[in-house]
Design brief:
2 copies of one chain form a homodimer. With 144 residues, chain A is mainly alpha-helical. Chain A has one domain (8-142): Winged helix-like DNA-binding domain superfamily/Winged helix DNA-binding domain (Arc Repressor Mutant, subunit A, Orthogonal Bundle). Chain A is 64% helix and 7% strand. Chain A has helices spanning 8-27, 37-45, 51-58, 62-74, 96-116, 122-142; strands at 78-82, 90-94. In chain A, helix 1 (8-27) packs across helix 5 (96-116), helix 2 packs across helix 5 and helix 3 packs across helix 4 (62-74). Chain A is globular, with a radius of gyration of 18 Å. The N and C termini of chain A lie far apart (39 Å). Chains A and B meet through helix 1, helix 2, helix 3, helix 5 and helix 6 of A and helix 1, helix 2, helix 3, helix 5 and helix 6 of B. Chain A binds a DNA duplex (30 and 30 nucleotides) through helix 1 and helix 4.
Chain lengths: 144, 144
DNA sequence: AGCATATAGTTGATTAGTCAACTTTGTATT
DNA sequence: AATACAAAGTTGACTAATCAACTATATGCT
């Protein structure tokens, strides 16, 4: 097997696509995807978020969030309630159907994270995680 | 600014999209993108590769490679020569136009890599890089 | 009050990428 | 030599994501 010289960004893009594909398969039985499940996690911890706020938190643009949330409501995982104080906005809430499956999904994520980091020591995991946070902060600066 | 708890995969996906967007802008003046420039790098070091071989090396499926390479030939960066020994296959070669811009592109990549890793020590960079390689190898196993 | 500007959300166009079906050609087996 | 199977490349359908344009409502300023 040949190799191209690896730098941080090539690694990142390969890793992204590999894990995304796996997650999509694992979440298919809930009709969720690697992109959509995180909305549920965030709504679980924050009742009544608006779409624009959740877009910020997830790091998607508002168009993506609108489409994802529409899909999640169609699937019965999320309800949109009109905001009494701002008639442009929705407040987002999880349904019981969503709360029921969230623990299973969390397990799937934990399982995948465990699988791909199996060859790392605890120290390597910590350093990698904190380095990625630093890198991400720099990367975000680029796009502003 | 609120934060969701970060795990490896969420970081990775955010990082992927942030760096991709930046690179796309940086490479736009060559009509290249974050996905296509790597084909040029690989062809530079490997004369006469087939599309299926380059797909393996890059980690894209052959459909993606076919489309990308078609575009690169339209742009005049790559030529497809029919393989004398296997009439199904092409052999791929860089043009002079491509060789001319490759050093500049390499600089762009180096610049971006430098920017996003600016807050890391040398040790952190090394550990992060080698950990990501380990993670990627595990992730690849998942999809086979 | 009236106007300008900002914000919430939606929609359409475009891009990167994957998967599956297909055509053509090569390889292996009998 | 015939048949079967594998491999190279293309095409079409689909998903995730972004950007830009738009509508409707809020907010701030004079």
């Amino acid at each position: 097997m040949g190799q191209e010289p690896m730098n941080m960004m090539m690694l990142n893009s390969k890793l992204y696509r590999n894990t995304q594909g796996y997650l999509d398969k694992a979440l298919k039985k809930y009709d969720l995807s690697s992109g959509s499940f995180r909305y549920l996690f965030i709504m679980e911890e924050n009742e009544g978020l608006s779409q624009s706020r959740i877009s910020e938190l997830i790091g998607h643009d508002k168009a993506m969030s609108a489409r994802t949330i529409t899909r999640l409501t169609e699937l019965g995982y999320v309800v949109r309630i009109e905001d009494q104080l701002d008639s442009r906005a929705y407040k987002l809430y999880l349904t019981d159907k969503a709360r029921l499956i969230l623990p299973e999904i969390r397990e799937e994520i934990k399982k995948l994270t465990g699988l791909i980091t199996a060859d790392l020591t605890e120290e390597e995991k910590e350093i990698t995680l904190s380095s990625l946070v630093k890198i991400l902060n720099k990367a975000r600066e680029l796009n502003t």
